[in-house]
Design goal:
six-stranded mixed beta sheet; 15 strands
């Protein structure tokens, strides 16, 4: 899959931009805050229908303007396709594929796979369990529509249960009607997570070792909440009184975690900045490889300022990895021209470079 061109109007700090891309390497050079990351976020938006930075749609519209447009033209499975997103303050966003509006925007997820590596990824290691659940759910949802549907049903029922807890409901039958939905979807969610985290862990270990070199051992492990109670229905029965006091549901797939360890110790407590960066890049490369295998399509790879806080040896290893033919189309931002020149040299003649200044993109 290739993103052939992108047209932006009033997206974040980008007033207007039209870019035609190389099918291999596309580099963006500029100081921080100039709009490099915003361009990658626009590409991400076309794949996921939302911002990588988790900003509300209204905040994606350029200050002082009333609307924003993101238009991407792709070559997918040998066919030209167009994705168009329209944002307007105070209105529901428009999302179209080849001119047709989606009835359910969620059905778009996974059709145009994309992986973004960004500085904010450090929260996968240092942040709370919610960050890691979101990471794994986004990966599996792109490759498994039944998983996405089960996750959406579970979250809707969870929201109902939490609302009942906040409002002080005490009718066991009402709780059981909602908990039955949660229990039936939780089995699928947890079995798919367990299976896929095992596959992702194998790929992750390969990339971590390739980037870090010898002497470090990193691993992932799925940790379920409330498994001491047996079934989820039993857990709900045992914890309902406590949940009523807490005003939220304290056990279930929405409380599960992925344990990240480095040399058998929790990575969030022991990893240096460079090791944390290596950890997150390896996780994202594992996501890329997993999606490539699961969807039979090569995702777009977006690399946003990934070389900061890494020693020279790790930078060189990463550049050698992403320069391989099996990584398809890549978009890279950096403040350092040297890094970009080295990557473009690996790519041969098939690359394009832009400088970025105040939301304006100038081909070099």
């Amino acid at each position: 899959m290739i993103l052939k061109s992108l047209l932006l109007t009033n997206f974040k700090n980008i007033a207007s931009a039209t870019l035609d891309f190389s099918p291999k390497i596309n580099c963006f050079l500029g100081n921080n805050g100039m709009g490099k990351s915003n361009l990658l976020d626009a590409i991400y938006f076309l794949s996921f229908t939302k911002s990588f930075a988790r900003l509300p749609d209204a905040m994606l519209i350029r200050r002082g303007e009333e609307f924003a447009i993101i238009n991407g033209r792709y070559l997918r499975n040998g066919t030209d396709e167009e994705i168009n997103a329209g944002l307007r303050a105070g209105a529901r966003k428009s999302f179209k594929r080849s001119g047709k509006e989606y009835k359910r925007i969620s059905s778009h997820i996974g059709l145009f796979p994309c992986v973004m590596v960004a500085p904010a990824d450090q929260t996968l290691v240092t942040g709370n369990a919610e960050e890691r659940r979101r990471f794994i759910d986004m990966i599996i949802s792109q490759a498994d529509m039944p998983y996405l549907e089960a996750l959406m049903r579970y979250n809707q029922a969870l929201e109902q249960r939490n609302r009942m807890l906040r409002d002080g409901y005490d009718d066991p039958l009402l709780y059981e009607s909602v908990e039955t939905v949660m229990d039936s979807t939780a089995d699928l969610i947890r079995s798919r997570r367990r299976e896929n985290i095992g596959l992702i862990s194998e790929i992750f270990n390969h990339y971590y070792n390739e980037i870090a070199g010898e002497g470090e051992t990193a691993s992932l492990q799925y940790v379920m909440s409330g498994d001491k109670y047996g079934s989820l229905m039993q857990a709900f029965g045992q914890t309902r009184s406590r949940d009523a006091a807490l005003k939220y549901t304290s056990t279930g797939p929405h409380r599960d975690d992925i344990a990240l360890t480095l040399d058998s110790m929790p990575a969030r407590q022991t990893a240096s900045q460079g090791q944390t960066k290596t950890f997150t890049i390896a996780l994202r490369l594992a996501q890329f490889e997993f999606l490539r295998r699961a969807t039979a399509r090569t995702p777009l790879l977006l690399l946003d300022d990934i070389f900061d806080k890494l020693d020279t040896a790790r930078v060189e290893r990463i550049m050698n990895i992403v320069g391989r033919e099996d990584f398809g189309q890549i978009f890279i931002t950096d403040t350092n021209r040297k890094h970009l020149d080295e990557i473009m040299a690996l790519a041969g003649p098939d690359y394009r470079l832009w400088t970025v200044d105040q939301g304006a993109f100038t081909p070099v």
